[in-house]
């Protein structure tokens, strides 16, 4: 009988595979929930601006991306921004922030930057550029930025995008003659 002992490299590779499987399972379940949540919010938004419930479904929200932003602790946060001001180029963003007590996200509204508070189990939802176009400007893309903090901050952003093939244009129902 031949017994093959695993060397250190093989053991690490096996453990890595195991971690990746668990990671895939957890992230897969999270993304499925975010997809459902995103679809429900989009339905409410569509109805709210006078479009049919499913207007932004299918091609207009077919391509989704999950990203993680990590902001290391910054010794002098007043000297630099974590993320410069921008609007997201997609249809819509759903954001979750960890840890909850580290503030940093700011929205530009009524001529000033306002800090966004987070709450347990809460999601932050941004209107992206494509939703501003699709809604013919009824919804304005959210201008936002991130300030650094002396503590580490991480955010998870789920970007909902139209498919590459689809044409994004103002909804006919929202164009005044
Ligand atoms: O980290 C945040 O709170 C915001 C991240 C963000 O704006 C982005 O990923 O586009
Ligand atoms: Fe953003």
Outline the structure in words.
- With 177 residues, this protein is of the alpha+beta class.
- The protein has a single domain (8-164), classed as Jelly Rolls.
- The chain is 27% helix and 27% strand.
- It has helices at 8-48, 129-134; strands at 63-71, 81-86, 92-98, 105-109, 112-115, 124-127, 144-147, 153-161.
- The chain is flat.
- The termini are far apart.
- The site of fe (ii) ion (FE2) has 3 residues, from loops.
- This is Fe2OG dioxygenase domain-containing protein.
- Keywords: Iron, Metal-binding.
- Residues 61-162 form the Fe2OG dioxygenase domain.
Q: Please tell me the overall pLDDT.
A: 92
> Would you give the CATH topology?
Jelly Rolls
Report the helical percentage.
25-40%
Q: Give the name of the CATH architecture.
A: Sandwich
First-residue to last-residue Cα separation: 85 Å
Uncertain runs: none
**Biggest β-sheet: strands ordered side by side in the sheet:** 1-8-3-6
Structural class: alpha+beta
Total number of distinct structural domains: 1
Rg from Cα: 21 Å
Number of helices: 2
Chain-wise SSE layout:
Elements lengths: L7 H41 L14 E9 L9 E6 L5 E7 L6 E5 L2 E4 L8 E4 L1 H6 L9 E4 L5 E9 L16
Antiparallel strand pairs: 1-8, 2-7, 3-6, 3-8, 4-5, 4-7
This protein binds 2-oxoglutaric acid and fe (ii) ion.
The site of 2-oxoglutaric acid has 10 residues, from strand 3, strand 7 and strand 8.
Please name the defining characteristics of this protein:
2 helices, Jelly Rolls, binds 2-oxoglutaric acid, binds fe (ii) ion, metal ion binding, 8 strands, 4-stranded antiparallel sheet, IPNS-like_FE2OG_OXY, 177 residues, alpha+beta, metal-binding
């Amino acid at each position: 009988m031949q017994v093959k002992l695993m060397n250190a490299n093989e053991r690490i590779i096996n453990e890595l595979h195991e971690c990746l499987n668990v990671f895939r399972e957890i992230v897969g379940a999270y993304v499925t929930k975010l997809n459902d949540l995103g679809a429900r919010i989009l339905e409410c938004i569509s109805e709210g601006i006078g479009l049919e419930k499913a207007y932004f479904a299918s091609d207009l929200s077919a391509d989704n991306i999950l990203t993680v932003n990590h902001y290391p602790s910054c010794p002098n946060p007043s000297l630099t921004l974590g993320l410069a001001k921008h609007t997201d180029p997609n249809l819509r963003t759903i954001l979750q922030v960890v840890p909850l007590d580290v503030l940093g996200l700011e929205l530009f509204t009524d001529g000033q930057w306002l800090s966004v508070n987070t709450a347990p189990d809460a999601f932050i939802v941004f209107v992206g550029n494509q939703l501003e176009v699709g809604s013919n400007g009824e919804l304005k893309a959210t201008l936002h930025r991130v300030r650094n903090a002396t503590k580490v901050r991480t955010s998870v952003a789920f970007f909902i995008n139209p498919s590459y093939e689809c044409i994004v244009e103002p909804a006919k129902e929202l164009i005044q003659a």
